[in-house]
Amino acid sequence: MTATEHSPAASGSSGPSELPSLDLARVVAELEDEVARKRATGELPPAVERDLDLLFARFAPAGATGTDFDALVARADSSWFVDLDVPTASNLPGVGLVKRVLRKLMAWYLRFVTQQVSAFGHTVVEALRTLGRRVDRLEGATPGASPLVSAEDRHRQRPSSLDPWTDDVHALLVNVTGRVLHADAGDGSFVERLESDGLDAYGVDGCHGHLATARRPGLDLRPDDTAEHLRRLGDGVLGGLVLCGAVERLPLGGLLELVDRAEAVLADGARLVIVSEHPAAVPRSVVEADLAPGRPLHPETWQHLLDARGFREVEVRLAGLDGGLASVPGTGEANTILNANLARLGSMLFPPSSFLVTAVRARW
Amino acid sequence: MVAIHQFVPSLASRDAIGHHTLQVQRVLHDMGIDSTIYASESQPEVRRRCAPYRTFGRETATMRATVSALARSARSRPSTWFGPARSGGAAADPGHTWLLYQGSTGSPVAGFVMARPEPKLLDYHNITPDLFFAPWEPHVAAELALGRRQLAELAPVTELALADSAFNEAELTALGFGATAVLPIIIDTDDFDIEPDPATLRRLERARDRGGADWLFVGRISPHKGQHELVKALALYRRDHDPLARLYLVGGSSSHSYLSALEAFVADLGLTSAVDIVGSVPPAELCAYYLSADVLTSASRHEGFGVPLVEAMHHGVPVVAVDAAAVPETLGRGTGRGAAGLLVGPEQPALFAAAVARVVGDAPLRTAMVERGRDRAADFAPALTSALLRTLVDDLVAGAPG
Question: A213: distance to nearest CA of chain B, Å?
Fold first, then answer.
């Protein structure tokens, strides 16, 4: 008898195939489609396979079925209690009775021990949970640490833009000496402009898609994350640095590190330019603003940060102030108070859309 | 006289490496080459066919005389301690004696071989990555890690390294072994074609009469062989395709904790009557399982070769397997004819179940797979693999100094 002589068991899913030649890769591809269709129609709910995984994980030692933190903690949580009630069944006559007697005789001692072990296990599990929550919070506040936040950064839909500050930034940089870095350079149009003025300029952008739209081949544009790039640069190597884009998205920890690295990589007398949306302005993309790991700082905060690091000639320029409330003519006390209130109201109703901060690096 | 003595950590007749070692000795003896097997451990049924490895180089005249007498009495397979033709003294002639280490795990035997002055050969059967065993059997994981370290140490002192498969050979090359060659495990297919155990066959037939497909897995119960993935796939198969299907897991256990988990998993799924963890069986019973199976299933994640795959193809049992390590190569991928089995990705029980359903339910596909499988199994005919070994040994001896 051979296997092929058997009446094959009925298959509920697949009909006979016409096989002029045996293409098993095609068969597997068909099966993958079949399973995908069953998943899509609900015929094969995801819970079925997941439940099988979870069930086996109950019997497998820690680490055998993955190293997911939550799963390991859940496993520890389900096993911290040391059960005193040992099985006493036996197929041998009388042995079960002996086991039960032994269990009873030893219970006073074992209970004392197991209660301490269980209490220790429970404390460790609770400590792990607390530690996990703290790590989660840290990851949420640290750039790149949380995979969830990093994944959502894909919502960065547009390349960073220097508008409406392009001419201002150009004017600030056109006379600098040394290399100029445009971080979050997008399609490289500003790098190209600086190059055409004879500056040694290059750009980085963490979004490969943005670089793919580079204006012309040959531009020195590198696919690199701004913070990572600045970490790798040596101290004092740049004559100019333009920060945009990243300064609107990084969480606070990342921003503080960024400004520290900017201070380090700029040479004495080098020019720093920061262009950012104003935090009070309506963002151009609500989705992007909500899902970004961080939010833009106020210009006053940048001014404070740069002053604190010894930058000189710190200057803030605001954009979009034209739509404010008109002042009441006259110089009387009442008018002065009224105009001050109008100005305050105007700044709330019509905040600047963006701002530019510039400063010069001064070595102590 | 030329001698190639084999060193193996453990010799057992039902083990693929043990069987291969005995087959290599047979070929060497047929070539008139002196060959003795030295082992650290041996099963009772082959104990008389090997010597304790530490006795190498310290044999006495009395021992040799005793062994010669034993060898004369075992004409069909001259396989006693020191082989029938051994005439050399304790200090082997380094120019004409090679030590062939059968490598598959960490062992003091490897250290012993490395310390010897004779030129070394390696026959690599792969060492399971320790990560598979670490959570289940830490002491086995440590042994496997040692094996990997020993393998690396063997690289600079090995004259020729043989590998069961191109997959294994690639590992050797990556470790810096210079001269390498692929020598598939020598399988004596005559051993496959024995009379099946009638009692086992009857029992399996009775189960078949109740309906449902028979899945078969042959191999040790071990974490890297992923029998729990087969159980998952069977559970889905019974849910979606065939509620009466059964799974037979034939082979001894390499991990008590994994076996316990597997048994508990099966019980929790309510599959105790559908999953038969058979254990190790004699060849006649194994033959009955092959003859009764609808499909050979393998979810193994790491194989350096795959004797059960060859055995299944030889018996005309179609194969559904996880596409991993040397499994596709053993099934024939890369030969120009394509693999003889359906290969699916790992840890996809629903896909695996669908693949089995297709193989069981699609008669033309099944027939074509069986035909291709038989072709592929013929590639491992002992005449071919033995001839390959003879060629490799001839080249080795021809290139030896003196």
Answer: 37
